[in-house]
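Input.
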Amino acid sequence: MKITGAKVFVGGPGKNYVTIKIMTDAGIYGLGDATLNNRETLPAAYLTDYLIPNLIGKDPRRSEDIWQFFYRGAYFRGGPIAMAAIGAIDMALWDIKGKLAGLPLYELFGGKSREGAVVYAHATGADLSDLMDSVARYVDQGYKAVRVQCGIPGMPTAGYAVPETSGGAGDFITDFSGITPKTEIWDTDRYMRYMPGALMEIRERFGHELKILHDVHHRLLPREAAAFAKEVEPARLYWLEDPTPAEDQDALRLIRQHSTTPIAIGEVFNSMWDCNKLIENELIDFIRVAVTYAGGITPVKRIVNLAGFHHVRTGFHGAPSHSPISMAAQHHLNAWAPNFGIQEYLVLGTPACDALFPSEHVMQDGMMYVSEAPGLGVDFDEGEAEKYEFTAGSHPIVRLQDGTLWNY
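Output.
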């Protein structure tokens, strides 16, 4: 069995999804997602110019060797562009494996550990009252977990992932009005004074059954993050996400020494080597890698296994920059992983998205139920894809009030 060709598509409804379709001489094809948010044309070019020419003629069943060929065989390894491209190929090869076997992917991993996987939604508000309304809407829909973000009184701009005005949408951050990013202004002192009390008010209103998550998005220095994590302990968060940039991994040790608040990190990680010491030293509670950015199913399955030895649970990234293809890969991993924690989920199921990526995966009452279809359980309509093309967009940047560029 040989790979005979591969196509790369860029575009989609409201996002520049990067989709690869790998064809074989057996008439079976596999799909993968290489979407790198706001840098989408780069993994697409890497696939087209460098990887696909070396893919033609290979046996698609030898996914491990192909992964090693592209990763270990490269002199310069890693990075989000290369890993997104390799990850897309790896997903597509696993999709082919499942179709050959006539089995959904979770069966190839070892079978289900659970029937449904808990997902969390993004509740946002321009202020705390607006956020409370957003949380209530998700609770009414049956969600058992929500991530909460709200505007901070006196903050010059809305802050991270919150709408500018009450009732506005805050999930889709990318601005497609041009390549120049918008600027948000951040005030750490105001945030640290306000947010602990806001989290307690949310807990008091919605009780202890609701899983409450909060994302700091790398905005705090290590000492600030340790103090914040300690102060929010009474709110009993399900997790505190990205309290400080993880490049300085000893910063996580400082937080651990001062607080028992669970820590989730890893959505920007690209390999096992970004997170293995954090896991082995048990400095985090949830690993947030994404199947696309971390290089595909093959390496992420290794990360999940390592995490399981050290009491670290999964909490895969699930922002709208991941297409239904990579989300399907994560759904299958979630169904299998004995150390599953939770899955981030932003609603992708618009009619336009469903038409481009037909699927039978089901999200109901805050739970994701994986499709029984062979492989990933997601298809791709090339006819629908012709409706879309690349549209340049950008992610915001952050500055402090004095103009200093800060962490997004």
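The longest strand covers residues 117-125.
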